[in-house]
Amino acid sequence: MKFKTVREGQQAVIYNHLGQGRLLEGPQRIFLYRERLTYLKLFTADLYDYLVVKDIDGNVTNKRGPCKMFCNPLLVESIEVKQAIKIDANHMIVVYKRLKDSDVQRRVIQGPSVFVPEAEEWLHQFSWHGCDAKDKTRMIPGFYKFQQLAVIPDQFYYNVKEVRTLDDTMITVKLMIFYELKDVLKMLDTTQDPIADMINAVCSDVIAFSGKITFEDFLKQTHDLSELKSFSQLLQRADRIGYTIQKVVFRGYHASEQLQAMQSSAIESRTQLRLNVEIEEQKQKLADLKITKEQERAKLVQEMEKEKQDHKQKMSVLKQTHDLEIRNLEQQQGLQVRSLMTKAKLDLKNAEDSYSTEYLKTLKDVDIDVTAYLVSQMDPPADEEIQMVKKTVNTSF
């Protein structure tokens, strides 16, 4: 016998000595006599959780959060808190639901979304070929398991091994395949592992491509392995399962050790020859450059000498022209001076003649015999005596 307290917000089940139980909700304080009290565990789900409730009669109910529930053993067998499925953008999930007539309904939910399944629903579990963590070119069946299906473009590496050419050479072809999911329903209806289907198809294409040509031709035509037209079976198979192949990239090849050694030796020889050719070409280019520069330098010297001679000739012509102009100016100035001198002499002579005329007129006016005066002014002969006779002027009237 004892007292028990059930606080507010708590629940408990009380069992009597006969095993019968009753639910008790707090707040309460109860006296127990030949009874046992068991507190119930509270389960809480937030916005991104839900509760999976399994009743004792076998019914299962999923309750979306936020919610809470006590695990009452009188009605409930178990309660489990599970996280809701967060679907990212460019992802989707495939959900199946059992109907009352035993049929199954399928639907696709596109992200971004938060999905809480019902009790009758379950998600499609994908199991595809996956890339080995230690070797990205090795695909392991069933290694990639997931529930959210990516619908964005993706790619994977794959090495097609034991490819035999026409001349019986064994090689490994390295490829990278880019693909994108276009039709989810077609993919679900036609394949369980699309990666495996694409691997098988690309192997068929590579074997068909290499089996028709020799190893030397293969080396010359490797660029065709980066063209989609060389992968007809891959394109057809991808279209049947709802995918599109965007691009196939040839990443190289690998042969046996002996063949690889021969190829390495041949590559080294070709590289050395190519280097020798390039060295010789550089030498020839350097020699041509030297000759060209010497020719340019000689041409430049000739042009400079020609310019110097042209300059001298031009200076000589200018000097001759200048001297000629100076002589012409001197001649013109001399002519002008002589003309001025002649004019001055003429003016002086005219002035003297005019003065003489005026003087003679004056002499005439004073009754001096002008003729005798002129004769007297002339140089007389040595033996001749010049006499001047004054003319008597009769002043009486």
Task: Describe the structure concisely for a colleague.
With 397 residues, this protein is α+β, with helices and mostly antiparallel strands. The protein has six helices and 21 strands. The protein has helices spanning 184-190, 194-210, 215-220, 232-240, 257-365, 370-377; strands at 2-6, 11-16, 21-25, 28-32, 35-39, 42-45, 49-55, 60-64, 67-70, 76-83, 85-87, 91-98, 104-110, 113-115, 121-123, 126-131, 139-146, 149-150, 154-164, 170-181, 243-255.
Structure description:
- The protein has 397 residues and is of the alpha+beta class.
- The protein has 6 helices and 21 strands.
- The strands form 8 sheets. Strands 12, 13, 15 and 18 form a 4-stranded antiparallel β-sheet that branches. A 3-stranded antiparallel β-sheet has the order 3-2-5, with no helix packed on it.
- The chain is elongated and about 205 Å long.
- The chain starts with a strand and ends in a 20-residue tail after the last helix.
